[in-house]
Recover the amino acids of this structure.
């Protein structure tokens, strides 16, 4: 499967703390292999690999896992220490409780707290002021990291029933549909992720060698590479594959492979805030960006590979997706990769 891509909004939002401290963010971008000029274009996107590199650059340069946005400085190694502690527990519920307890050892908390009400459970965001988070990136990061970390620990995605936010819908709220795969509520009384309490009894299945491998790229990888394996969106992406030059499977075949009726699958996709057509369009977009960044194929070849019989149609579609032509995208991406401070 081609790499998923990340909206340019999240790239710039991740740098807001560094900008607030007047650090050289253009150099940070180039070290991650990202063109500072390209990323500021409307519709810009980067590969998940580039975004992972950027997060690692930010945490290293700032020596702060809160990226200059949190209520306090979070020293490098804090996340890894928490992971080592929670690995000692047998169930998800115990691990979540230990993670919250660990986070509350520090002055001015930034963590998730577990609450349970019969058959529903909630991870509630506790974020003490003051924070510098104009784009809500720190809020989003804590929710995403905790959700995906604990999903990884139990070896299955924790399906969310609802994601609630105690702030108005931001300009990039549409991106939330592809992050949380559940109904969204803004202007709520608190920020929380709601899920079925049955997950709390799930056993922790990871061991220390797995955790050491996991921590080599995490938590940056958790933000950049969502685990969609348990969502219908992710399962459909896997069934479609990455070769759009051949006839794609139709919706009825997809539904039969997932052992549901077409009506049920449409309902499930609505619950995940997406559709079959949107899944195909976003796959085409991400696949095109992936191949343009590699530079191994001509633009006409890429057009055919992502399912366009006419290059002109591909050019129009790509500009609609990203605001740029494929040629301009490739030129901007190449300039970042060849720069003197680009990441290896």
């Amino acid at each position: 499967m081609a790499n998923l891509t990340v909206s340019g909004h999240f790239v710039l939002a991740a740098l807001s703390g560094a900008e607030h401290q007047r650090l050289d963010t253009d150099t940070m971008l180039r070290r991650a292999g990202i063109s500072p000029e390209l990323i500021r274009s409307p519709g810009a996107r980067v590969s998940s690999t580039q975004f992972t590199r950027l997060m690692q650059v930010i945490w290293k340069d700032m020596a702060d896992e809160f990226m200059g946005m949190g209520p306090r400085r979070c020293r490098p190694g804090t996340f890894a220490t928490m992971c080592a502690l929670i690995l000692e527990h047998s169930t998800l519920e115990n691990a979540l409780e230990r993670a919250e307890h660990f986070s509350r050892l520090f002055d001015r908390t930034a963590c998730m707290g577990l609450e349970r009400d019969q058959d529903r459970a909630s991870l509630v965001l506790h974020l003490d002021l003051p924070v510098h988070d104009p784009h809500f990136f720190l809020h989003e990061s804590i929710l995403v990291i905790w959700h995906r970390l604990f999903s990884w620990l139990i070896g299955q995605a924790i399906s969310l029933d609802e994601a609630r936010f105690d702030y108005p819908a931001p300009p990039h709220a549409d991106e939330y549909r592809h992050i949380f795969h559940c109904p969204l509520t803004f202007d709520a009384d608190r920020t929380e992720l709601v899920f079925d309490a049955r997950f709390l009894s799930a056993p922790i299945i990871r061991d220390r060698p797995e955790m050491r491998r996991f921590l080599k790229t995490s938590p940056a990888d958790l933000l950049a590479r969502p685990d969609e394996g348990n969502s219908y969106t992710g399962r459909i992406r896997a069934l479609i594959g990455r070769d759009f030059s051949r006839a794609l499977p139709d919706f009825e075949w997809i539904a039969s492979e997932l052992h549901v009726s077409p009506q049920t699958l449409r309902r499930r996709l609505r619950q995940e805030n997406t559709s079959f057509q949107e899944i195909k369009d976003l796959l085409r977009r991400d696949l095109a960006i992936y191949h343009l960044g590699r530079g191994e194929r001509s633009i006409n070849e890429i057009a055919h590979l992502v399912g366009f019989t006419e290059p002109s149609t591909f050019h129009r579609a790509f500009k609609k997706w990203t605001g740029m032509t494929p040629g301009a995208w490739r030129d901007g991406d190449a300039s970042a990769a060849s720069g003197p401070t680009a990441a290896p």
In short: Residues 276-294 form the longest helix (19 residues). The radius of gyration is 20 Å.
